[in-house]
Write a structure and sequence with these properties.
Chain lengths: 205, 199
Amino acid sequence: MSTYKLYYFNVRGRGEVARLIFAAADQKYEDIRYEREEWVSHKSEMPLGQMPVLEYNGVKLPQSAAINRFLANQFHLAGKDNFDQAKVDAVVDTINDMISKYRPIRMEQDEAKQKELTKTFLADELPKHLQNLEGLGKLYGSGGSFFVGNNLTWADLYFYDIAQHILELDENIFNNYPWLKENRQQVEKQPKIAEYLKNRPKTSH
Amino acid sequence: MPSYKLTYFNGRGRAEISRLIFAAAGQKYEDIRIEREQWPALKPKTPLGQMPVLEVDGVELPQSAAIARFLAKQFHLAGKDNLEQAEVDAVIDTISDINTAWPASSSDEALKKKFLTEDLAKHLQNLETLGKLYGKGGHFFVGNQLTWADLRFYTFGQTCIEAAPDCLNNFSWLEQNRAEVEKQPKIAEYLKNRPKTSF
């Protein structure tokens, strides 16, 4: 019997995609959530002094993307063969390219500056990333609503999670991207995902 | 037998890891190198308007990491099972984190210097930690055999050393790792014969 422990903060952040994968796979795991003050005493227990960390049968694995891909592969949510898995990885990398442009803006302390940077991001940066993602969905999605091969993969779960942060910036953003809108709706409709979304802790980010 | 076509600029950059994987595997492929002037015409024909792109039996795949991982898995250079592949991915991601943190394209020389003299070392320390955690006591990052994590660190190491020749002086495990990669016969052959480019 394999054991899975996920260590992260009590937020969605970089841990939520793993939780979505566990939920989609209906796989039990220990969902360990450290508050900031608790984390200090556990930091040295983690390979790189960071979280999330997955502990699988006693082996600790850092890096959220490596964790997510590992879990997806364990539970057949990664793509049906090596080439489909590569298409999934390409979608994931493209989502990363998008969100990596936003993260520095989110860290900006000056409120006025943050507002300005966010406006620029929404107008000048975000559209091409969303167009790229729609492009990949249409290229690899076999005519369906999922990113790759007409089946749910972790690319869909990752987009679902990241899109939530984008929607907080502009709740109407996907009205211009019908394929992406439909993709998220298909994810939400999956019974195990719907159940998980209904019951998960509500956190600030 | 699939046919492989890799398209990139005439440089190492984001394609060299894939070229090293092909070399380590002894696998033939079309190594297409586009000059800067040719790129604008080609750009709209690529899935994301970017390179590298790998074409496998006519289907295009963008994103350098996705390409490299696909090739590594094709040629059994990705790790022997799902957990080892994840350990390899963790090393790859840790190298990516260094690139993200490195203000390489900044015009602020003081900022770049600060990164090289103060921050780089702790990132390299993280890589040594993973090598010792997953390397089963050997010189390769994961499981005592060559994987694309070693090839990726090899290419990254070259970038590091070009920016700061002494960057690996305090990291004998990492130095040894690169030496082991260079000794692999097919890699040694490839390194000897590959085009010399500015990036």
